[in-house]
Specification:
single chain, mainly alpha, 3-stranded antiparallel beta sheet, two-stranded antiparallel sheet, 40 helices, 7 strands
Length: 955
């Protein structure tokens, strides 16, 4: 045995040390001078027989360890410290199976496939021989052990004494002194890792030995009481010892995590702004492979002055100092400063904040989940929760750790898993009472999270509301909306019970915060879908959202007015839903004018959506109540009840469920539809780069229709006319519009009879200000040549004249007269002439008809000097009249059945005679005159015959 600490430089120019062995190392390695276990501190009676029993038992344990080799302990260790697919309990079961029956058949088949059948068979025989020899030797040794002890109960007593020797020692630390020498700290951490590994492996060997005894209990004649004692007392005891040394070894060997990028203190350290050199170098060490978690704990350790005074000095420590410091360090990790607690890793809730401050989230998760799993196994969580609140503190710290991991994780399954686990932990921590509540308040501030500033808890419900508010604030701070929504909803479920009836004002202030969190986190289904936790909250939710909507940016997303609309629609309150969405449209109109939004067309589109939605909602209301309170326009429903700069009181929250009285300036469906039409016109004009707006909705501005026609927005122009004009006013405006459309055709003269695309099958083609073709109702534009543009004007005129001449029968006359007035020599389109002729197959009634009849066209021809067309038109109808079918002759002979424009005919004859007398177009006019004279003479003769036959038609 080496009694001191020796050091030298090896071939790699690194410093090496040798220390003395710890008691357990001497015992396991059999290197004691006298070989008496009592000298190592075992609490045994001065009985040589029990010493012999212990030595025999250790020999059996060594045999099992040698049979399995080092692989078994390595696999078991990895299953405990890493995320393993196979749990440690399953691995322990497999190890026991190998000890009893040897390797499985699957392993033998694997050997056979790798090395051939003969070699595999030989290997199988050798393994079988080995397990047979091991089993026989163990049976002989165990039988000899029982015979020496007489009963298994005495053997178990010795084992229990030995297990107490494996428990980490409890040492009371009474002062603190930081380890200033990095060499001394490294020696201590290295010694701790070596000794903790030996203790872990020794405890694991004892666990395997005890399980082996239970496995072969029938072969060694072990009583049922002894088996129960092993399973209920000794195995849990050794499992706790294994976990304790595992944690110590984990801290001593696991490298620390590098400082998080988001950590501001680490950024300051990297910039070397802080003047403390030790603090600047601290974060630089984090993440280095040689800088393990134990160094972080050593920085905070509270050690005894006698033990660490030498270790803190700059000289090399003695072997005695190293061992004592290792024991102090181990005791502090497991038991804390006082060493009074007897609970498993009760000091874990003091270690976790230290690691949390330094961003060691993975280590915290492992430490606390290990403690939680052990407490679950012991089923002591309820008792811990009732006494000192460590169960709640543990879950609070674990929730903080998982939340920090979720913040650092990228989006995906890992982040979602961490968030869900953090939510679960915080909900469990909220169940704390009494002592745990006070501990949680101080703990949150210690680890760097917002302080749980809540004192004088009236009830558990009040504590939960406050804790949920704290958790919600944390999730908000990290932009994790899922968790914030869950705790906001949980707080709503507790708020009625938590706050007393006298504290209604605080209650509603609290509710306001929770509702706003749900909104900001996008929890629309909770707010609008009837998922609120208790009756009576819906009205308060509406009031709070309306108050916030009034003070929020109108273009904020998600939009509060749309949320209120959905909220009211879900409650079947159609009129209030229409009111909120109309208020949204009204605010858009007002604020767009004030702020001069760049994307005016988008704002107008939103206004249109709001107006159409309001109209649809009001159509669901009974006609007697289908109107909106005019106070909505420019003011919230709750504007008078909610001041802007101070908290609202209960008295201010008046009920608004009473049916409001209709005022003289109410907004009904008709006014909404008027505004929708005018806004649609404004929207289309904005697409055509025309800035126009309106100030009132009961009538259309005088310039609106002209602008729409100018920009070829004919559908919108006619919609405005039909909406705002009636009777003679409508006819007058239609005449103005068609005059303007006709003049556009005159400016783009093309062959009106050319083959054209049927626009009726592709939607109406309208002209924009950028000489582009726009399909009405669609923002898509396509370029068009000037020739096509001219064609489209004639096609558009034909389409709309056909559509709207039912509103004013004289429109074809107006169009034709406009053409002839603009250009007396223009050739009227065939479709326009056909409208005058009204498409009559047989013209037995002469030139009679509606206002746009053949006589009107004849009159226009005469007025504008189109004598040839007038003569041809008249001859055509006279000839049709004369060539009536025999069946129609009787009808023709009825009095007043036939009419021709004789006055216009006379004027035509006079004009032709005047032209002949003046010598203008003498031949042509003379020819027309003769044709007209002959036709009229025959027509008058026919009329005389019909007149003579008229009396007989009634007999």
């Amino acid at each position: 045995m080496i009694l001191g600490l020796c050091c030298w430089f090896n071939e790699k120019n690194s410093l090496s040390f040798l220390r003395c062995l710890e008691d357990i190392e001497q015992l396991v390695n059999g290197s004691s001078d006298d070989g008496v276990p009592v000298s190592f501190g075992l609490d045994l009676v001065d009985d040589d027989l029990e010493c012999e029993i212990l030595l025999e038992m250790l020999r059996c344990v060594t045999s099992i360890s040698q049979q399995l080799g080092k692989t078994a302990s390595a696999i078991f260790y990895e299953s405990l410290v890493s995320t393993s697919v196979v749990p440690s309990e399953e691995i322990l079961h497999c190890i026991m199976k190998i000890l009893v029956i040897g390797y499985s058949s699957s392993a033998a088949m694997l050997h056979m496939s790798d090395s051939g059948a003969d070699i595999a068979w030989e290997k199988k025989l050798a393994d079988h021989k080995n397990i047979r020899k091991f089993s026989i030797d163990m049976l002989l040794s165990l039988h000899a052990l029982r015979e020496k002890a007489v009963t298994w109960g005495r053997v178990l007593n010795v084992i229990e004494s030995f297990l107490k020797f494996l428990v980490p020692r409890k040492i009371i630390l009474n002062s603190d002194a930081e380890i200033s020498s990095s060499i001394n700290a490294s020696i201590l951490v290295q010694a701790t890792s070596q000794i903790s590994k030996v203790m872990f492996e020794s405890a694991l060997d004892m666990l395997l030995f005890l399980n082996y005894l239970v496995k072969i209990s029938g072969q060694i004649h072990m009583l049922h009481d002894d088996i129960s004692r092993i399973q209920l007392e000794l195995v849990p005891m050794i499992e706790e010892i294994v976990s304790e040394w595992l944690v110590v070894h984990f801290f001593a060997t696991t490298p620390s995590q590098p400082a998080a990028i988001e950590d501001f203190s680490s950024q300051l350290s990297s910039l070397q702004i802080d003047s403390n050199m030790c603090k600047r170098s601290w974060n630089e060490k984090l993440g280095k492979c040689h800088f393990t978690l134990a160094f972080i704990l050593l920085h905070n350790i509270q050690s005894s002055s006698g033990d660490h005074s030498n270790l803190s000095s700059r000289c090399l420590p003695s072997s005695h100092d190293i061992i004592n410091s290792m024991r102090d360090f181990t005791s502090w990790i497991i038991w804390g400063k006082s060493g009074e607690s007897s609970a498993f890793l009760s000091h874990a809730t003091e270690l976790a904040p230290i690691l949390l401050r330094h961003g060691q989230y993975d280590a915290i998760e492992y430490l606390l989940t290990t403690v939680e799993a052990h407490l679950r196994k012991e089923k002591t969580s309820h008792s811990i929760q009732d006494t000192d609140g460590r169960w709640c503190i543990l879950h609070h710290l674990l929730g903080c750790c998982l939340l920090a991991q979720a913040r650092c994780a990228s989006h995906g399954m890992l982040k979602e898993k961490k968030v869900n686990e953090a939510v679960r932990c915080f909900f469990r921590a909220s169940s704390g009472k009494g002592v745990s509540q006070a501990a949680l308040q101080s703990l949150s501030h210690e680890v760097g999270f917002p302080h749980l500033a809540f004192s004088g808890c009236v009830s558990d419900a009040a504590w939960k509301v406050h804790y949920y508010q704290w958790a919600m604030q944390i999730f908000e701070q990290y932009n994790i909306s899922e968790g914030a929504c869950q705790f906001a909803l949980a707080a709503l479920e507790q708020v009625d019970e938590a706050l007393s009836p006298k504290d209604e004002e605080s209650k509603y202030i609290c509710l306001r915060r929770f509702i706003f969190v749900l909104y900001e986190c996008g929890a629309m289904k909770i707010l609008c879908g009837g998922q609120l936790p208790f009756i009576g909250l819906s009205d308060k939710v509406e009031q709070e959202l309306a108050w916030k909507a009034e003070r929020s940016d109108i273009l904020a997303k998600p939009n509060l007015y749309k949320l209120l609309y959905a909220f009211e629609m879900h409650r079947h309150n159609w009129r209030r839903a229409a009111g909120y969405i109309y208020l949204y449209s009204a605010r858009l109109r007002t604020e767009a004018a004030l702020k001069d939004y760049l994307y005016t067309s988008l704002v107008l589109q939103e206004r249109l959506n709001g107006l159409s939605t309001a109209i649809n909602a009001l159509y669901l209301v009974h006609p007697a109540y289908a109107w909106i309170d005019p106070l909505l326009e420019g003011n919230s429903l709750h504007n008078d009840h909610y001041p802007r700069k101070k908290a609202r009181t209960m008295e201010e929250q008046t009920s608004n469920d009473l049916q409001p009285q209709r005022s003289p300036s109410y907004v009904d469906i008709e006014k909404l539809e008027n505004e929708f039409v005018l806004t649609s016109a404004e929207y289309l004009l904005s697409l055509a780069s025309v800035k126009w707006t309106f100030t009132e909705v009961h009538k259309a501005p005088s310039d609106l229709v002209d602008l729409l026609v100018q920009k070829n927005l004919y559908d919108m122009a006619f919609t405005v006319l039909l909406r705002f004009f009636k009777g003679s006013g409508l006819k007058r405006e239609l005449e103005r519009v068609f005059c303007a459309m006709s003049l556009k055709c005159c400016q783009n003269k093309v062959d009106s009879s050319c083959i054209r695309e049927d626009v009726r099958t592709h939607g109406l083609l309208l002209m924009s200000s950028k000489t582009e073709m726009v399909v009405h109702g669609s923002p898509d534009v396509v370029p068009a040549a000037q020739q096509s543009k001219g064609n489209s004007q004639w096609e558009t005129l034909e389409l709309y004249l056909e559509k709207y001449r039912g509103f004013h029968a004289k429109l074809p006359v107006i169009v034709a007269e406009t053409f002839l007035c603009a250009d007396p020599q223009i050739e009227l389109p065939l479709w326009l002439v056909q409208m005058f002729k009204d498409g009559r197959r047989e013209r037995m009634w002469g030139m009679t008809g509606k206002e746009s009849n053949p006589a009107s066209l004849f009159q226009l021809y005469v007025d504008y000097g189109r004598y040839t067309e007038a003569t041809n038109l008249l001859l055509d109808y006279i000839e049709s009249f004369a060539s009536a079918r025999p069946a129609d002759i009787i009808n023709r002979k009825r009095p007043f059945a036939v009419w021709f424009p004789y006055t216009a005919i006379e004027r035509l004859c006079c004009q032709l005679e005047e032209f002949v007398s003046c010598g203008r177009m003498v031949d042509h006019c003379d020819k027309l005159k003769r044709l007209l004279h002959g036709a009229l003479q025959k027509h008058l003769q026919l009329l005389k015959v019909d007149s003579d036959d008229a009396p007989s038609a009634f007999h």
